[in-house]
Amino acid sequence: MIFVRDPILQSVPIETLRPTQITVGMHEVQEKRKSWRSHGKKKKLDFLKRHAVPVILGFKEQLYIIDHHHLARALYDEGVKDVLVLVVRDLSSISQKTFWTFLDHHDWVYPYDERGDRCDYKKIPSSVAELKDDPYRSLAGELRRIGGFAKDTTPFSEFLWADFLREPIGKTTIEHQYKSAIKKAYKLAKSSKANYLPGWCGPGGE
Q1: With bands split at pLDDT 50, 70 and 90, how would you rate the model's confidence at 6?
Q2: 31 is a domain residue
Q3: Same domain, 25 and 122
Q4: What's the distance, CA 11 to chain centroid?
Q5: Rounded distance, CA 189 to CA 34, Å?
Q6: In which band, very low, low, confident or very high, does the pLDDT at 200 lie, cut at 50, 70 and 90?
Q7: Taking the mean position of all CA atoms in its chain, how far away is CA 43?
Q8: For residues 156 and 61, what is the distance between their CA atoms, to the nearest angstrom?
C-alpha cells in the first residue's frame, strides 16, 4: 500500500520572506487588501490555510517566494505578521551564485525592473516591503480578469503581457485614465499582434 504524505506547512513571519522578482502591480495589491479587509476573523484564518505561499529554501536557510508575491505584499501592508509556507525545494546546500542560476533555469525568478529591463540578481529586494510598483503588471492583471486573455501556466505570463502593453500604452494614461487604458489594452489583446503571448484568445485576424 502506498501512503501519500500531506504537504508540511510552516508558519513564518512575512518580513523574513525574500522575493524572487523586483516588482508587483500595486493596483492588484490594493485589490487584494480590500478583499482581505472584507473577511471576518474566521474567514481570514481559513483563507491563510488555503493560500500557503510556495517557497524555496535557499542560501543560509532563507526562504524565497516563488509565487503569491502580490498576496504576500498585501498581507504585509495589512499588518499580518505570519503566513503559512510550503517548501517545494531545498537548495540550501548550494552557493548563492548557483542558487540564482538554478532558479533562472527553472523559471522561478524574474529579475526585471518596472521598466521591463533585466537586472542583476542583486537588484531583487530582500523583503516584500521593498517590492516596486509596475503599473503595467497591474494593467495586465486587470486585463486577464475581464477576459482579455486566459489564465495560463506559463511562468510569469502576466509579466509578458505587461511588457507587450508598455510601448502602445503610455504610463500617464494608466495613472490618469485607467478605464481608457483598459479599453485600449483589451483591443490590443484581441488583435493578432498578441497571438504569441500565453493565454491569447483573440480572433484569427484583426
Answers
A1: low
A2: yes
A3: yes
A4: 20
A5: 27
A6: very high
A7: 23
A8: 25
